[in-house]
Fold these 2 entries.
Entry 1:
Amino acid sequence: MKAFFTSLLVFALSIDQLSSQVHPPNGGTVEGWITCSDNHRMARFASVSIVSLDGKQTVRADASIDGKFQIPNVPAGEYLVFGVYPGYLSMTELYLSSLLAGAAHDPLSTKTLDGFSIPHVQVLAGRTTFTSVVLERGSVISGVVRYDDGGPAEGFLVQALFSQNGLTSPSGLGAAISDDQGRFTISGLPSGVYGVRVDYPDRRSVPLYLGDTPKLEESHQLRIGIQDQYAGVEITVPTNPTELVPSIIK
């Protein structure tokens, strides 16, 4: 009887091995650690994204408390690895939007961001690829939003709009909500040229742009360098947002 069960176990293992040969895994695993360059600490619970070079494949995972991450079932191919952590550089959205827009110059074609290297991995089916992600501090835009009567504008959505090839994106690369003093801070930005958009708390009123104008094409822009601290941005909004409607129609 013992010999029978031993033979049965060997047969089952053989079938399992044969099945894995007939149906080989079509994806691989990416493992690694994510750390912060300025304090050399693990980026606990940071988000990690791997994006294919053509932008068609994106897989995300969260790091653990010790900064370790594991992304299974990744289709074979070449990927860039991005980390997302408050205050640190992340270009995932900018990379994807540049591909969708068919930008003539891909800002990540050199696999660097503000001179810092972006991890690049080759994923093979059935294999585990190891990598490490080191996060670099991004630039900061900060300032205050006030009503035209001088009072602080609390609860406004403030977005940093990235400008590329002379065009300013209507969607934000970074955002913040103004506090009870009207102050805001947007961090983790790459160097470049930016516009700033402000939306009323109801999100239905006409937005304003830097330069206190409701027209994006008439707005002012900021140029920030690598790991710059651009402070002192001031935007004044009308207490009556309906005043902005005639300005748009003109």
Note: The chain has three helices and 18 strands.
Entry 2:
Amino acid sequence: MKLGLVVLLALCACRSEAEHVTFGATASMRHAMPDLVARYRETGGVAIDVTYASSDRLAELVKQGTAFDGVIVADEVALDQLAVESSRVVATNAIVLVGPAGSQAKFAQLGDGKLVIGDPAHVPVGRYAKQYLGQIGAWEAVQPRLVLGADVTSVLSLAKRNAAAAIVYRTDLVDASPLVSLDEPPGAPVATYSAAIIRGAKHAAAARSFGEFLISREGQEVLARHRFSAPPQR
């Protein structure tokens, strides 16, 4: 009887520990993550507590001692700032140009008004924007009228304050109104989202399980509903 009670208490303790898995997720995952966590729970997974911030800010938080078990970041620059046990690409995204309805702006014809992008020094969406603008020879020309945001949510907020255009992710269009999508060029860099397990994570096994769920059929269906695309085939 005593042995059975000890085993039961041990199992309860393990479950309690597992129920506090913590993930940091890049801000552009803010709509998808609640649905992903809910679906994961339906499949028998443990609860996931999520903190949202820009990818680079998440890396800073880890360095400052925030005890994330895992993180999801939106480019390799942010990923390289982390000490991780393992990582894998779980989704991709695309940059789009947004602006007021009726605007004729395109990436190749940005006009003369303010252009809002994420700060390339700190935000993946800004780095992707800079890369593509450089690719098409427009980066130097737009310098005098750039407005820099701290993450994708602030880019949209700034853009709605009378900017001519902004560069955000396709997945951010859900929050863009009254702005509309003006251009999504097929030649733009693909944004890659990696789920990483932090080295020394307290709940590494549970975090890995959630990472596996993200690339499962169920996880990819949820991500697709939020306009993410599948990771590249290995």
Note: The chain has two domains: 2-92+192-225, 95-183.
